[in-house]
């Protein structure tokens, strides 16, 4: 399989390929990071890209798999998180100037569980400020764009999650949903 095709895989498809050694976590992660580099300047799905951290996690996952230490179906899968979920030592802003420099000292439970299961964190995704309201072009954070039509919004508040998955910038993402914040982007971005 060429690296140009890897972004088209689903988690369900990639898992067995990783487990059987047909693709490697390093190869898969590198393909997504390259795609982010190619497209995210236009799509603005990411607030923070964790290139070095993701590659280190991919090398760890690959070494574990080569030893036969398989953590489960998320092992080696490149994902991204809505920038609402705390990530220890990594800026978590909720797309707000008020929290622009906030660096959590602990992981959110969901973050810790995903990484504990071997998921590889590519970065933190754009969202509507504090997961409320609509897009705000004045707050200084990127406004994710709909990958199917750049003039349309991707919905929200989990806008980067919808854009990221639809454009093949991550295999999966965590969003949050109180009033359609995941369902809207999934529908707007045809996921």
Write the layout of secondary structure elements.
Layout: H1 11-19, H2 25-43, E1 46-49, H3 51-66, E2 78-82, H4 109-116, E3 120-125, H5 159-166, E4 172-174, H6 183-188
Parallel strand pairs: 2-3, 2-4
Antiparallel strand pairs: 1-3
Helix pairs in contact: 2-3
What can you tell me about this protein's structure?
With 191 residues, the chain is of the alpha/beta class. It has one domain (6-188): Amidase signature (AS) enzymes. 35% of the residues lie in helices and 9% in strands. It contains six helices and four strands. Strand 2, helix 4 and strand 3 form a beta-alpha-beta unit. The radius of gyration is 16 Å and the shape is globular. InterPro entries: Amidase (IPR000120), Amidase_dom (IPR023631), AS_sf (IPR036928). This is Amidase domain-containing protein.
Feature tags:
191 residues; alpha/beta
Shape: globular
The CATH topology corresponds to Amidase signature (AS) enzymes
CATH architecture: Alpha-Beta Complex
Average pLDDT figure: 95
Beta fraction of the residues? 5-15%
Main pleated sheet: 4 strands, mixed
User: Share of helix among residues?
Assistant: 25-40%
Distance between the termini: 23 Å
Determine Rg (CA atoms, Å): 16 Å
What is the strand tally?
4
Structural class: alpha/beta
**How many separate structural domains?**
1
Number of helices: 6
CATH superfamily (homologous) name: Amidase signature (AS) domain
